[in-house]
Each structure stands twice: as structure tokens, then as C-alpha cells.
Write a structure and sequence with these properties.
By secondary structure, this protein is mainly beta. 0% of the residues lie in helices and 45% in strands. It has strands at 19-24, 30-35, 39-44, 50-55, 64-69, 75-80, 85-89, 95-99, 106-111, 118-122. The strands form three sheets. A four-stranded antiparallel sheet has the order 1-2-3-4, with no helix packed on it. It has a four-stranded antiparallel sheet with strand order 5-6-7-8, with no helix packed on it. A hairpin with a 5-residue loop joins β5 (64-69) and β6.
Length: 127
């Protein structure tokens, strides 16, 4: 391997649903995965085992397409096919706020390092 970097697949998790996006917690021990429907599945990275499921957003329609944990690991942002953005408490799964504003689906989102802002971009050409 060039420069001592070795990449290897250690776990292979197969689901019966489409998986759209994932984010790692700050400790890199859990992966939160956006799944078809409205769920977020949290897997343990070391074992690949499902740890818990969260409701990705409060709407009864649509699919969770994007997930992003903030750098503190306290908040999970989700965006869906209904063009909404939800902020969840990562531990409890409670939806803290649902935001609207984009006229197309959110294609990417990132929290700032100080956790003060969530920056989103969308198919509507807006940031």
C-alpha cells in the first residue's frame, strides 16, 4: 500500500431497503444511516450491529435522503424528499425543530465546527 495506507472491508451489512447517506459520530464508533422511508439506523462501526433506529423527520410522507451529525455529537440533521430539514437530539431521537425554505431537495449539509450553523445546499441553487 502506498504510504502505509491499507483499506479493507471488515463488515458487510445488507438491508432490505435503500440506503441514501451516512455520517459518523465524533468518536467514529457509530454510523447513522439514512434509509428509504423515514428512518435513521445507527450501527456500531466495529461490529456492524444495528444499535437503534430513529425517526428521521416528523412528516408522514417522504424519504430521508441526507444525515449529518454536528461536531459535538449532540444533534443530527436530516433532510428529506419533502424538502424539509429536521434537527434531532441524537441520543433521544426527539425532533427539536423542523425547517423549511428550500424549494428543491437538499443535496448536502454540514455543521460548522463551532456547531452554531448548519449550512445547506439544494437543487434550487441556494445555499
Amino acid at each position: 500500500a502506498a504510504g502505509g495506507l491499507v483499506l479493507a472491508r471488515s463488515h458487510h451489512v445488507v438491508e432490505k431497503t435503500t440506503l441514501y447517506d451516512m455520517t459518523l459520530d465524533p468518536a467514529r464508533s457509530h454510523a447513522a444511516v439514512a434509509c428509504h422511508g423515514r428512518s435513521i439506523r445507527v450501527y456500531e462501526v466495529e461490529t456492524g450491529k444495528l444499535q437503534r433506529c430513529l425517526k428521521g423527520f416528523s412528516s408522514d410522507d417522504g424519504t430521508v435522503l441526507k444525515v449529518q451529525l454536528d461536531p459535538s455529537g449532540c444533534f443530527l440533521a436530516t433532510s428529506g424528499s419533502d424538502r424539509s430539514i429536521s434537527i434531532l437530539d441524537y441520543e433521544s431521537g426527539e425532533t427539536l425543530v423542523t425547517l423549511f425554505g428550500h424549494s428543491e431537495i437538499v443535496t448536502s449539509m454540514k455543521f460548522t465546527l463551532d456547531c452554531r450553523y448548519l449550512i445547506t445546499v439544494s437543487g434550487d441553487r441556494c445555499v
